[in-house]
Amino acid sequence: MGSNLARNLASREGNTVAVFNRSYEKTETLITEHPEAGFIATSSYEEFAAALQKPRTAIIMVQAGRGTDAVIDALTAVFEPGDIIVDGGNALFTDTIRREAAVRATGINFVGAGISGGEEGALNGPSIMPGGSAEAWQTLGPILRSIAAVAEGEPCVTHVGTDGAGHFVKMIHNGIEYADMQLIAEAYDLLRRVGGLEPAEIAEVFAEWNTGELESYLIEITAEVLRQVDASTGKPLVDVILDQAGAKGTGAWTVQTALDLGVPVSGIAEAVFARSLSSKPAQRAAASAMPAAAAEWAPDDRAAFVEDVRRALYASKIIAYSQGFDAIVAGAEQYDWDIKKGEIAKIWRAGCIIRAQFLNRITEAYAADPELVALVTAPYFTEAVAGALPAWRRIVSGAALAGIPTPTFASSLSYYDGLRADRLPAALVQGQRDFFGAHTYKRVDKEGTFHTLWSGDRTEISATDAH
Ligand SMILES: NC(=O)c1ccc[n+]([C@@H]2O[C@H](COP(=O)([O-])OP(=O)(O)OC[C@H]3O[C@@H](n4cnc5c(N)ncnc54)[C@H](OP(=O)(O)O)[C@@H]3O)[C@@H](O)[C@H]2O)c1
């Protein structure tokens, strides 16, 4: 990532880029392989600092955690007040809040910037989510704008908010990415197991979907992966890849953070858990003989079934993005960040992994109502989900009857039904809580907080008298 980002920077008019890696041989390889970049190779932090114009700007691309702390410490020792240290790795946003405060105390600016787009994005234009101070953004803005991806003429970078806001938003981006990928995988599984389509045929279905409202990078690459044939066996590549999905942790961070914030990101959580379940071979082997008691599901009209899957995918995807944006709203409130939700959707339109056509609809929704309480309640999304509902219910119920796991499809539909319900069984949960723990409850018909004397005569008292 670091070398590609450096090459991207060096390719922009007027930029001379100094590079440093703790292993000097890697720096040498980079400058030898890319003489066109005109890099200044440096072999120590002192030399690196001396090579930069003031105020200096350094972008760190190392593993999150101790490595990042080590590099920040070393740079802080050789930089001066007014200089800028940018951490472009996938740091946990609470670490970024801590680091920003510590570095700011030295007079040096620290900016945690989420960078999405993988190796290719780093080279040709990523989506960049910087946090840090407004002062640092003054200097950094033009540099990051010059290397970012461009969507409809606009660079995919914006000052997200102070301290850890950039890494927070990047974390949510990755969480949404987990949900989006799992949803696509569930759609593939249904098309194959119920629709009876072969991977190459499913690739064509995805390619077709990529011309409509589902148009996105992830749908596009799914078609590519499904088209790929394994050279050594002649089988579809997807059939020879071990079905155990890995994870680097940003999905789990999203869910952990959302739990702390009390935001239901059930689609993202199910996607993270689906990867965990897949990666438990011993448990899966032990459970493989368990009964299915499933019914045969063979739709008469295959084209109609494929369309149902598409609609269910689109509705579930709307829920996943809605939940992700709800988490951004809650995080902004908790950490006092002025995050412009519509701007975030805009900078995800190119360069990043979840780039998609429908992000424009999110920008429009927040432009129409910046205080939107839940993204899915915006008219465009409500309508889109309503149009998909019969198909969505057919797919989720059909999968349940057929014994096909659809954790993100099903949880997204459940979330939708929960959100729109007039009345939830939470009332009973409150009753149970009051029974065993005197946790009290409120009533629908009068003000106040109440407790029933469950171990006494079961009369109700005002909670202020209960203790
Ligand atoms: N790969 C992606 O698609 C992607 C996308 C977005 C964000 N990111 C984030 O970008 C960062 C870099 O990822 P990457 O894929 O480029 O990783 P990478 O190829 O493994 O490179 C990591 C770099 O960190 C250096 N490093 C590790 N520990 C260090 C320490 N203690 N002190 C000094 N340098 C240290 C390594 O130096 P040596 O060469 O000497 O080992 C290497 O230059 C990570 O935070 C990652 O999460 C990656």
From TrEMBL:
6-phosphogluconate dehydrogenase C-terminal domain: residues covered: 166-455
SMART domains: 6PGD
EC number: 1.1.1.44
Pathway assigned in UniProt: Carbohydrate degradation; pentose phosphate pathway; D-ribulose 5-phosphate from D-glucose 6-phosphate (oxidative stage): step 3/3
Transmembrane segments: none
Keywords attached to this entry: Gluconate utilization, NADP, Oxidoreductase, Pentose shunt
Cleavable signal peptide: none
Highest taxon listed in the record's lineage: Bacteria
UniProt-annotated catalytic positions: 170 (proton acceptor), 177 (proton donor)
Entry keyword Membrane: no
GO molecular function, one term: NADP binding
A single BP term in Gene Ontology: D-gluconate metabolic process
UniProt catalytic activity: 6-phospho-D-gluconate + NADP(+) = D-ribulose 5-phosphate + CO2 + NADPH
Binding site for substrate: 90, 116-118, 173-174, 178, 248, 275, 433, 439
InterPro entries associated with the record: 6-PGluconate_DH-like_C_sf, 6PGD_dom2, 6PGDH_C, 6PGDH_Gnd/GntZ, 6PGDH_NADP-bd, NAD(P)-bd_dom_sf, Pgluconate_DH
Protein family per UniProt: Belongs to the 6-phosphogluconate dehydrogenase family.
Subunit structure, interactors included: Homodimer.
Primary role: Catalyzes the oxidative decarboxylation of 6-phosphogluconate to ribulose 5-phosphate and CO(2), with concomitant reduction of NADP to NADPH.
PANTHER family: 6-PHOSPHOGLUCONATE DEHYDROGENASE
Protein name, UniProt field: 6-phosphogluconate dehydrogenase, decarboxylating
